[in-house]
Amino acid sequence: MKIVRDLLDRVEPLFREGGRFRLFRPIYAAGAAILLSPLDRTRAAPHVRDPLDVKRYMSLVIIALLPCMAASVYFFGLRVLAMVLVSYAAGGAVEVLFAIVRKDDVNEGFLVTGLLFPLVLPPSTPFWMVAVGVVFGVLVGKELFGGTGRNLFNPALVGRVFLALAYPRAMSSSWGIPGSGLFGHVTQFSVDAVSGATPLAAAKSGGLVPLWDLFFGSVSGSAGETSAAAVLLGGAFLLLVGVASWRTVAATLGAFAVMTFALHGGSPMMTLWHLLAGGILFGAFFMATDPVSSPLTKAGRWSYGIIIGVAAALIRNLTGYVEGVMFAILLGNVFAPILDEIFVTARVRRLREEG
């Protein structure tokens, strides 16, 4: 790595203010940060590092997503990888453009958004639609709020909801039937794939997919959400390394299970079935736990998760939508700031009274 460090140090003056390539400083800084440690260092002691900096968060979430990515490629073919490349290219272009305009660095957090977005799409989604969705999500969901750390909503979900509302027919007819291995039904780089009903859509008509298929992922659905085993494996990793809040996950899944149990006449089997079907597990572990758009207080995280779990169950079971997780998480994002304010204010008031 010393060779890479020496090379980057040698060309770095070209990207400084007054250098020949100063406008492309964000691109240089992003590449250097990915390859090596952050460029900015304190010159004297004490040297303090944030235990959860952006780079560490990005790396751990990407590692956690690898089981979901592997499962999606196995069941739906190599086309999923192409969707990821399109997502990175289109969304990354927006990030770079805004970084150049603002004369700021490109935040590595987009590497997570760029991977999450195609995993919440049907595997046969047209490539142009992937590009449009991720551009909208990054632009409207993050950059218009001021960039990473200032966004109210999860950018990947903003792009997903936009596609669902703008192109409902295309988004409801792009479900691929899982193939066998890398070269399955939707491996081709086209949308002329066999389309099948998702487990939740089939359930609306009275048919239930076996729990075994839901657990391992041999069902139709969004690319990264069909295998509950892969999601649980990646989610457990996020909890173990402390990136995801276990309170948010527990509150989301607990509230969803309780509400589903009540709506289905106290049936434990139907409750388990709904927990494994659709995107509730993926949403609880990977989307609801986004540290920027979720609450920071412990009590806020419990309340936030309950809002998402209850809303997801109600939308899924009592509306025309077969899945309500993405809408429920965006609803939770709306409440996140006020939840923190409520509990922080209550805590300060209680401390003053005790003092």
Q: Number of domains in the coordinates?
A: 2
Kindly report the CATH topology of the largest domain: Ammonium transporter fold
Elements, N to C (H/E) = HHHHHHHHHHHHHHHH
Task: Return Rg in Å.
Answer: 21 Å
Strand content: under 5%
Distance between the termini: 54 Å
User: Total strand count, please?
Assistant: 0
Q: How many helices in DSSP terms?
A: 16
Structural class: mainly alpha
- The top-level CATH class of the largest domain is Mainly Alpha
Low-confidence stretches: 45-52, 184-194
Q: What is the general shape? A: globular
Output mean pLDDT.
83
Biggest sheet, in brief? Answer: none
The CATH architecture of the largest domain is Orthogonal Bundle
- Helix proportion of residues, in percent? 55-70%
Description:
This protein has 355 residues and is mainly α. It folds into two domains: 2-35, no CATH class; 54-347, Ammonium transporter fold (Orthogonal Bundle). The chain contains 16 helices and no strands. The chain has helices at residues 2-11, 25-35, 54-76, 79-102, 110-119, 127-141, 155-166, 168-172, 199-204, 211-216, 228-240, 246-263, 268-276, 280-287, 298-318, 325-354. The chain starts with a helix and ends with a helix.
Helix-strand layout with pairing:
Layout: H1 2-11, H2 25-35, H3 54-76, H4 79-102, H5 110-119, H6 127-141, H7 155-166, H8 168-172, H9 199-204, H10 211-216, H11 228-240, H12 246-263, H13 268-276, H14 280-287, H15 298-318, H16 325-354
